[in-house]
Design brief:
Number of helices: 13
Number of strands: 15
CATH topology of the largest domain: Aspartate Aminotransferase, domain 2
Distance between the termini: 39 Å
CATH class of the largest domain: Alpha Beta
Number of domains: 2
Low-confidence stretches: none
Shape: globular
Order of helices and strands: EEEHHHEHEHHEHEHEEEHHHEEHEEEH
Largest sheet: 7 strands, mixed
CATH superfamily of the largest domain: Type I PLP-dependent aspartate aminotransferase-like (Major domain)
Strand content: 15-25%
CATH architecture of the largest domain: 3-Layer(aba) Sandwich
Radius of gyration: 21 Å
């Protein structure tokens, strides 16, 4: 396959898929692979779910796009549905997680300016990931993502993740703080799960200092952790929430949800998107949400996630190279003692798709539809891959 006309932005694996069905992907020669990363937390319903296929096909035969200068009943319905699920009041639609986070950043700045802060500053976290636009890569706590793109965007200050004390110090010493932007569980940063009460304490701090709590739920949202949104585990309500990946099961869409007093910062002309909230994307998103509800997939996500976590913990507890098994719902990480990127290639040879993030964390993001049998296959394959990798590492040291 000649890829000379593609920009060199991805380290692609030596396999190409032609079709998908449920939790599986297939090559042109009909080789079957179990997708344990769901297109990086995108295809929660698996591939080619009949309800989504029907919605996309039907909508494509009617209308795909007009313009946001005209009204859209589908966009209105999707906004109402998301606000009902989230507890927030208003939605802005865009095309990706990065765009949703851009909208949140702009809202925070407007909110600050309208409250008399000339240089609004947002607290962000180390090891975070918020996107690859200039503002969101600046907010991202990964130097590799930022390298070469300087000068970065001003208006951000960084704190260690899961460290309330440092956040308090920043707020006490920085008079221009308008918001805290944080992932409830860091995905790209290594599936880092904070202490119980972390988000609740951040909420209390924001209330005390009139600061916005903005949660990036691009990866954790739409049922991935066993609830519609990860913040629901702590019974809090943020001021702003961003969603994207799992919202339309593969059709590009993002959304920035906000409380009314924050959403009111946007007026006609202050923000927009050409493609955001188009008919096709909204129809796919509505079908996705309806299917998650009708098939009770959040319950399955919680059930299978607990099964995977217990299975890996039990089978890997005596494996010296494994430092931690963690996660919530169908968002799991297995941290090894050192770099392990080749484990993804070992698993690929065994016909299971996994991902290694933060250099030494195996990340698993299976679709919500997985069965116990498929969960067992993931456990068996990943444990075998870790053991094979560990054996190779031992031989190389010897």
């Amino acid at each position: 396959m000649n890829e000379s006309h593609l920009m060199n932005t991805y380290q692609r694996k030596p396999v190409a898929f032609e079709r998908g069905e449920g939790a599986y992907l297939y090559t042109s020669t009909n080789e079957q692979y179990l997708d344990a990363i769901s297109g990086l937390a995108v295809c929660g319903l698996g591939h080619c779910h009949p309800a989504i296929t029907k919605a996309i096909t039907d909508q494509a035969s009617k209308l795909i796009h007009s313009s946001n200068i005209y009204r859209s009943e589908l966009q209105t319905k999707l906004a109402q549905k998301l606000c009902m699920i989230s507890g927030l009041d208003a939605a802005f639609f865009c095309n990706s997680g990065a765009e949703a986070n851009e909208a949140a950043i702009k809202l925070a700045r407007l909110y600050g300016k309208q409250n008399g802060i000339k240089h609004p500053t947002i607290v962000v976290m180390q090891n975070s990931f918020h996107g690859r636009t200039l503002a969101t890569l600046t907010a991202t706590g990964n130097r590799k993502v930022q390298a070469g793109f300087e000068p970065l965007v001003p208006g951000f200050v960084r704190a260690p993740f899961n460290n309330i004390k440092e956040v308090k110090t920043i707020i006490a010493n920085q008079p221009n703080i308008v918001a805290i932007l944080v992932e409830p569980i860091q995905g790209e940063g290594g599936v880092n799960v904070p202490d119980v009460g972390y988000l609740k304490t951040l909420r209390q701090l924001c209330d005390e200092h009139a600061i916005l709590l903005m949660l990036d739920e691009i990866q954790t949202g739409m049922g991935r952790t066993g609830k519609w949104f990860a913040y629901m585990w702590e019974n809090i309500l943020p001021d702003v929430v961003t969603v994207a990946k799992g919202l339309a099961n593969g059709v590009p869409i993002g959304a920035c949800l906000a409380k009314q007093n924050v959403a009111n910062c946007f007026v006609p002309g202050s923000h927009g998107s050409t493609f955001g909230g188009n008919f096709l994307a909204c129809r796919a998103a509505l079908a996705t949400l309806e299917t998650i509800e009708s098939e009770k997939l959040i319950d399955n996500t919680k059930k299978q996630g607990e099964y995977l976590l217990k299975g890996f913990t039990k089978q890997l507890q005596k494996t010296p190279i494994v430092q931690s098994v963690r996660g919530r719902g169908l968002m799991l990480g297995i941290e090894l003692a050192h770099s392990c990127k080749e484990i993804a290639d070992i698993a690929l040879q065994k016909k299971v798709l996994i991902n290694v993030t933060s250099n030494n964390v195996i990340r698993l993001l299976p679709p919500f539809i997985i069965t116990k049998q498929q969960a067992d296959q993931i456990i068996h394959t990943v444990v075998d891959a870790i053991c094979e990798f560990a054996a190779k590492a031992d031989r190389s040291v010897a």
